[in-house]
TrEMBL record:
SUPFAM superfamilies: OmpA-like, TPR-like. GO terms for cellular component: membrane. It holds the Pfam family DUF3868. Its main location: membrane. The keyword Membrane applies. It comes from the Bacteria. The keyword Membrane applies. PROSITE patterns: PROKAR_LIPOPROTEIN. Residues 1-20 form the signal peptide. Residues 13-103 form the DUF3868 domain. Residues 215-283 form the OmpA-like domain. This is DUF3868 domain-containing protein. It is found in: Membrane.
Length: 485
């Protein structure tokens, strides 16, 4: 019993702080702390100031800087720093000399000189992982006593690391489509009448002509009877197919165009004569070439295409050569299927449309959007209020009507951004050359997760003259550098 008491007394004398609570980290300071990312590496540096730390001579403090994820589920320990008291340092030196202990690779080890200024210039590197972004740095202290026994652990919060927040981007407001001083419109159609051989007389009851002429008259009536429209010009152009000589077909197309115009004028006497304009083109050779190109199931197609390729400028000779090469059945197919659509009179009715009140424009958007200007459609959409289904529906109709209108396309895309429909935005703007639209495309790419495409779009927006995209490009570049994506 006496020996046991003496042994306990010796341990207490040798390790006076063995059972005492330690608070070393509260006397430790970090200065010039920095956590940076370069490429795929993260560097942590700091000056660890020990000036106010009074370390018991038998103790050691193992400082382990640790990178911790924002949610605390991931961590990465860095190179440790071992700070030893005077006696503990000597013990470690002796063990190292005797080979009883090996120096931990990369570890910084020093002896604390109590009462003196002492700073550790710490720096460590590790591989970057995305979970480190918006994480934190901790310094964990593990105190060991004279018999290598643990005497407590401490943790010091050392601040956040690799801060990142989703950037906000400047976007141009909705554009206003240009006003149309005069709303000019036109109907372009074709009348394919059938004629007796070598004839140019319009015969309403011949074959399918009655249905064709009725269709023509309906086209005129729809425009004349609409009080919102004013017919301003009618253009009729006659065409012939390549049978016969070019000179003959020139005259034939002229006569057929004129007789067709006379017939239509007779049934539309309320339209002034000075509105009518008649012209003719002779053989529609280009139309014939296109017809052959589309006749994929025709056995003679390749033979005819070869003849066309070799005909040079002598169309009459070329047509004769084609005729000579074809069988009776193939030539009949040529006459009935390929030549027939070329015998026609194209007609174009030009007219103007009056302007509509906002309420009229709302109604017209549902039934005849083509009679509204792009600016009128935009006003209808605006009347519903942005970020409403009616607003988006009106703009979609407007863009279908005017697919090449830059302002409408931008506004539809902007509404899609507001609704989080980034795939739609990318599809709408993928071919745009407009600066503000390219900037919006960059926003959509970024929001959909493609930061590299976003940066490219922002750079193109700057080149196209949209200066605010420069800042957006810089934000994306910073994100790429930090996130490595």
């Amino acid at each position: 019993m006496k020996k046991t008491i003496l042994l306990a007394g010796w341990l207490l004398a040798a390790c006076p702080a063995a059972f005492a609570q330690t608070h070393y980290l509260e006397n430790l300071k970090l200065e010039n702390q920095q956590v940076s990312k370069t490429g795929s590496r993260v560097t942590v540096s700091a000056d660890i100031v020990l000036d106010e730390m009074e370390l018991n001579r038998q103790q050691s403090v193992r400082l382990v800087p640790v990178l911790v994820s924002a949610d605390g589920t991931r961590q990465q320990e860095l190179v440790p720093v071992l700070i030893e008291g005077k006696v503990r340092s000597k013990v470690t030196d002796r063990k190292l000399a005797l080979g009883e202990l090996q120096e931990e690779e990369g570890m910084i080890r020093l002896k604390r000189a109590n009462g003196e200024e002492q700073t550790v210039a710490y720096q460590a590197e590790t591989s970057f992982a995305p979970w480190m972004v918006n994480g934190r740095l901790e310094v964990r202290g593990y105190v060991t006593g004279c018999a290598a026994c643990s005497e407590g652990d401490e943790v010091m919060a050392a601040g956040s690391i690799l801060p990142y927040s989703e950037p906000t981007f400047t976007m141009a407001p909705a554009m206003q489509p240009a006003e149309e001083e005069v709303k000019r419109r036109a109907e372009n159609k074709s009348a394919r009448l059938e004629y007796r051989r070598d004839s140019y007389a319009v015969l309403p009851e011949y074959r399918t002509n009655r249905a064709e002429l009725d269709s023509v008259q309906r086209s005129f009536a729809l425009l004349k009877d609409n009080p919102n429209l004013t017919v301003t010009a009618i253009y009729i152009t006659g065409y012939a197919s390549p049978e016969g000589s070019m000179a003959y077909n020139e005259k034939l197309s002229q006569r057929r165009a004129q007789t067709f115009a006379d017939y239509v004028q007779k049934h539309n006497k309320d339209l002034p004569k000075d509105l009518w304009h008649v012209s003719w083109k002779g053989e529609d050779w280009d139309g014939f070439v296109a017809q052959v190109e589309q006749a994929e199931g025709w056995p003679a197609r390749a033979k005819v295409q070869e003849a066309i390729a070799q005909c040079n400028d002598n169309i009459d000779a070329c047509e004769w050569k084609i005729r000579q090469q074809l069988s009776a059945d193939d030539y009949r197919y040529l006459i009935d299927e390929l030549y027939a659509p070329l015998r026609r009179n194209d007609y174009r009715i030009e007219y103007t449309v009056r302007n509509f009140t906002p309420e009229e424009a709302r109604q017209m958007l549902e039934v005849r959007p083509d009679l509204l200007s792009a600016a009128e459609m935009q006003r209808v959409a605006d009347s519903y209020g942005r970020n409403t289904d009616a607003y988006r529906k009106a703009l979609d109709t407007a863009l279908r009507t005017y697919p090449d209108n830059v302002a409408l396309r931008y506004n539809v895309a902007l509404a899609a951004v507001d609704a989080g429909r980034y795939t739609k935005v990318i599809a709408l703007l993928k071919d745009t050359q407009d600066g503000a639209s390219l900037n919006l495309l960059g926003v959509a790419h970024y929001k959909s997760g493609d930061k590299r495409q976003a940066e490219q779009a922002f750079r193109r927006a700057v080149q196209a003259g949209y200066a605010p995209a420069e800042e957006s490009a810089a934000k994306v570049k910073e994100a790429l550098e930090l996130l490595g994506k």
